[in-house]
Amino acid sequence: PAQAMAAVSANRPCVFVVAGPMLTGHWRGARLGACTDCRRLWGRYRSGDLSKQEIKEVEAELCFTGGTCMVMGTASTMACLMEALGLMLPGGSSPPHASGQRLQYCVASGRRAVALARNDLRPQQILTRAAFNNAVKVLMALAGSTNTIVHLLAIARRAGIGLTLDDFQAAAAQVPVLVDCKPAGRGYMEDFHHAGGTPTLMKALESTLDLSAQTITGRTIGQILSEYSGPGAWQSTIHPLSAPLKPPGGLTILYGSLAPDGAVIKTAAASEHLLQHQGPAVVFESPEDADRRIDDPSLGITPEHVMILRNGGPVGAGMPEAGSLPIPKYLAEQGVRDMVRVSDARMSGTAYGTIVLHCAPEAAVGGPLALVRDGDPVALNLKQRRIDLHVDADELARRRQTFVEPPLPERGWLR
Question: Lower CB density within 10 Å: C or N end of the chain?
Fold first, then answer.
């Protein structure tokens, strides 16, 4: 994403090339992929289901080759979106790092870079409103990383395109989940690649896309897709629109008294029984506070609680991937696998669970998360697309009078 922002600002011809995903590892007959399986099996270790020796065996298999995470995490999602935006050669997002095809794409990309320099085709000619609309629809079909909402908004702002959270929600309401990859599904990036990759997915979405969007090939999306066929019945990773993996709404934008400026949840990777839930809050003041206290039985956390993490936003902490709070160890040992978690932080694109992220305004600038206290009723209602704090307005006003913004560091990137 940072490279894309720089490319737009410099507005010089560019071609995007990625490292490519790792191949899957294997442990006791099961395929493994970083980091979704890592989180799942680490949860089993915390619950006592796996021994130290078994988790060491798992660790040795999680990163089987070079490359990025082999699930639909942030790296894989962004690769697909760069292709959808038209800044990468068709099919370049998914070849595994260890494959000959990845080397072939590197060579072809180098040749294309020379041609672009000679023809002077620049990013600002490619990154139009149509390109971003297409990318957002691809994101929803992937049920991709929540991080990419932040990234696409930033790239669009550099390009002078007025992309908003409402555009993401409009696409979410229209486009179903078509790709069966973890953490929203079951498969891995090598499966996605062998099923046809991003061109086949975009062919499945063809009726919803703006086919006039330009690409670094010098051809439009429509011209490129005319050379591809849709998802073949011989594979089950990329679904057609007529038979989606999951209904529309793989990612959902939420509003409410806890997030008046918006928040996001990856619905496709959440637990159905928690999508309408109300419970008492248990508040952690920072990622470090959560690390210290989350496993303390004296907190009395139950599966009904809503875990609140604040001061994890851009101002408060640089917006780390801290929103995927672990299940308290004593609950994991009882078989609890998911709880509602709410924060102003991000989470890894490889993570899963009923987790509300990016709550805005963030706590460090006085957002509603700063006013939550232990025991306050917090309600998630996905049908209404709301995340709310049910506390009397007069009481919140009294709390706000005592709120003090945390001081900024005097220097450095945190400032």
Answer: C
Torsion of CA 115, 117, 122, 123, to 10 degrees: 80
Instruction: Say what the alpha-carbon torsion angle 196, 202, 207, 213 is, to the nearest 10 degrees.
Output: -140
Catalytic site residue 324? Answer: no
DSSP letters spanning 84-102 = HHTSS-TTTT-S-TTSHHH
- Its pTM stands at 0.97
248: exposed, middle or buried (Cβ count in 10 Å: 0-12, 13-18, 19+): middle
Element (H, E) at 41: helix 36-46
List residues bridging with 262 in a β-sheet: 360
pLDDT of residue 413 exceeding 80, the answer is no
Q: Which residues contact 20 (CB under 8 A, 6 or more apart)?
A: 67, 68, 94, 95, 96, 97, 98, 99, 102
Compute the average pLDDT of residues 226-250: 97
Amino acid letter, residue 316: G
Residue 254 tokens read as 């939420």
Distance CA 295, CA 300 (A): 10
Q: Of the residues 76, 93, 286, 348, which is catalytic?
A: 348
Within 13 Å of residue 367, how many CA atoms lie on the same side as its CB?
A: 30
Side-chain half-sphere of 199: how many Cα atoms within 13 Å?
20
Which of 63-67, 336-340, 410-414 has the lowest average pLDDT?
A: 410-414
pLDDT of residue 412: 83
The three-point CA angle 73-189-156 to 5° equals 45
Asked if 345 and 319 count as a contact pair (C-beta separation under 8 A), the reply is: yes
pLDDT at 126: 97
CB-based burial, 172-192: b 16+ in 10 Å, e otherwise = beebbbbbbbbbbbebbbbbb
Would you state the pLDDT for residue 170? 98
- Strands (DSSP E) found in 108-206: 176-177
